[in-house]
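Hey,
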Amino acid sequence: MYIVVGGTGHVGFGVAKTLLDEGEAVTVVTRNPDKAAAWRQQGAKVALVDVHGVASMREAFRQEKRAFLLNPNADVSSDTDREERETVRCLLQAIEGSGLEKVVAHSTMGAQPGEECGDLNVLYELELGPRNQPIPASIIRAAYFYSNWDAMVGSVTKDGVLSTMLPADLKLPMVAPEDLGKVAAQLLQAPVEQIGTYPVEGPNRYSPNDVAAAFAGALGRTVRVDVIPRESWQDAFRGFGFSDAAARSYARMTALTADGPEYPIRGSISLQTYISKLVLAHPDAS
């Protein structure tokens, strides 16, 4: 009944595993036959399809009723924006004429139109596609993944240093991929008419200082935060193996994250102050 694109990644795994644990029939899309066996052992069917193969993807969708759409990350040595936009185009073409009764698409907080801002732009286009076609669609806007810190475990364990491009005390909405998977599974199972955009974050907002403290608690040692200056971001990404285009795009995306485009503008008047003034102004308050 359900087909999951990106089932071998963090979020897609969470979607498929949640559905399987609830006894649902699940097909996982992957192009890697080495990863198919593990899913079959857990009771899933596997569609060995490359997401760029529109006809093959559409045929896989036709076998099921509801689909989870996730745009896989491109190789960072490529022009990631160009490659990921192409993947979005293929996914959206594949759902046309598929007969699906509902789709749930994975996007990100801060998604917006534009160029050279990585997922913020690419996933905005993934949001628009399902909204502009007749299949009922829900969109998940995910907070900053906890798993974005996975790559740091080696250096933190070795040197006690957490490197980041974000301000050390910046509180960000963050979320576990498993929680995103559970929310996506719930939306897939919800009535067809239940659609909308759903921002999803974890129970609290955390800063890089909080992340360092969590590592310190787990390791039983001091962990300090090393903030990479903004003017060095593109060079840092290139040092990680990113192409020039990808480094530029990821740096701009990081800047928008650091500057908090989706955070509300907070006023200064408390509820207590407002109510106190209200009561004092009432003629029967004296």
